[in-house]
Amino acid sequence: MAMAISSGLPAPCSLLMATLLLLIVQAQSVTRHYNFNVQMANVTRLCGTKSIVTVNGEYPGPTLLAREGDRVVVRVTNRVAHNVTLHWHGVRQLRSGWADGPAYVTQCPIQTGRSYVYDFTVTGQRGTLWWHAHISWLRATVYGAIIILPKHGVPYPFVAPHKEVPVVFGEWWKADTEAVVRQALRTGGAPNISDAFTINGLPGPLYNCSAKDTFKLKVEPGKTYMLRLINAALSDELFFSVANHRLTVVEVDAVYVKPFTVKTLIISPGQTTNVLLTAKPFHPKANFYMSAAPYSTIRPGTFDNSTVAGILEYQKPGSPSVPSFDKDLPLFKPALPRFNDTGFVTNFTSKLRSLATPQYPAAVPRSVDKRFFFTVGLGTLPCPANTTCQGPTNKTQFAAAMNNVSLVLPSTALLQSHFTGVSRGVYGSNFPVTPLLKFNYTGAPPNNTNVAKGTKLLVLPFNTSVELVMQDTSILGFESHPLHLHGFNFFVVGQGFGNYDAVNDPAKFNLVDPVERNTVGVPAGGWVAIRFLADNPGVWFMHCHLEVHTTWGLRMAWLVLDGSLPNQKLLPPPADLPKC
């Protein structure tokens, strides 16, 4: 066989050629196929059983595993009474916007009894992302982890862990969440809060009837574990800590960062964070809570101010690795920050820095083609005629907006309207690039807090370098807003409190090693500046990842035009694209 491969080449050349062929084969990506059946399943939590929407009957849903460069093909079949879409949160979707998933933005929903194949390639990404339903509030139970491994032979830029463990935070309602959001929209008031937080679908011992429903992680002394943290909660940013242990942050939103070690971290809905936890060198003869509790700047009583806990336990020498909780050992709890500790949040986020190495550069745009300034926050709409509401007053209902535009989703998909050239009556291309009404954004709110409703996109030529400043406002109170941009990563070049100063603040921007991510918190009572390169043609949703704010209209969309080259153009839609 070796003689046949050599084809007359000298032996060293033959060996080199064979080695190169082997490396090429190893480097080649594979196609990974998944079947996701959206179906109802009975799940018991907090002393009660209810029927929930799931994928393949699992709660949380199945983990999607891929490797950088792989093609991923997911056939989604809808077997429930609700319309459904799935979003692959953080996947760049280069030229494959048809697979992005937000309902009425990139596709019409998958109707009952129908299927749709999401087909995309994972390009230049590795780490932890996640998938979730992207219509109404179905993502309350329809979500799961995405784990993207590095290419074969490419190591982590940190010590390889002994084991990797997904840790997915969620929320649980005793009520049907679709009924919760319907009631809120009908009354104009805030929706009922959740009854518990969960870790990997389990509420844990601090809630009624839930000691048996506790996530437990058994570790071996001296070994290092990578926790792949995902905040899939609908409307709560979360503090997380493991009692008497330290966490080394090595990645956020599937981008490596300069490692730093903390006792506690903050993670917003939509965000992922990989941390290394090194077990104590000897069995500590104790167990430890892994706890998460909410961060909120809104007044107490309007959010789920409870704590979820899992348990970290140590494997005894000679004992099997299957968890067998020893209730006689002392159980330590971590000290979490106060629910409104904005100072802690600021201190943590300021530590996040890109690796900025030759292998993992921080390709932040140094020059900017277009600058935008968006106000981000809550507002009001008048009640329908001859009715009263449960909003800020009995004559108003809650709303939310960016630059005072509360996005109304159309009855067809924005991307399809753009691709077919039939946009008249579907959307306008006049989203305001700055606030139409300027005021002291972090001072006394204006007398008129009503927002405008509309379906407006912001158009960008291909390869435009963008700088966007997002400013929180005092209307209905300061609040942190985790903003997620579909189709892109961006660099967080600056942030601060008060009103953004366009003259003096840019001098403080970090253009060397800013953190790169897909979801960023707009600070409560402050602003954040991001930069990105619009190198992905299509229609890309940007919205607050607090689900109630998205429902109220805190959302917009960018339309990135095709470039001139063939590989700069949006691919045609697949034949099975759902119809509205």
From TrEMBL:
GO biological process: lignin catabolic process
Main location: secreted
Origin: domain of life: Eukaryota
Cofactors demanded by this protein: Cu cation
GO cellular component: apoplast
Keywords: Apoplast, Copper, Lignin degradation, Metal-binding, Oxidoreductase, Repeat, Secreted, Signal
An annotated Gene Ontology molecular function: hydroquinone:oxygen oxidoreductase activity
EC code: 1.10.3.2
Signal peptide from the UniProt entry: 1-27
Localization in the cell: Secreted, Extracellular space, Apoplast
Transmembrane segments: none
Keyword Flavoprotein: no
Boundaries of every Plastocyanin-like domain copy: 37-151, 164-316, 437-562
Catalytic activities: 4 hydroquinone + O2 = 4 benzosemiquinone + 2 H2O
PROSITE patterns: MULTICOPPER_OXIDASE1, MULTICOPPER_OXIDASE2
Cofactor notes: Binds 4 Cu cations per monomer.
Keyword Kinase listed: no
Function: Lignin degradation and detoxification of lignin-derived products.
PANTHER family recorded: LACCASE, MULTI-COPPER OXIDASE
Family classification: Belongs to the multicopper oxidase family.
Name listed for the protein in its UniProt record: Laccase
Upper lineage: Eukaryota, Viridiplantae, Streptophyta, Embryophyta, Tracheophyta
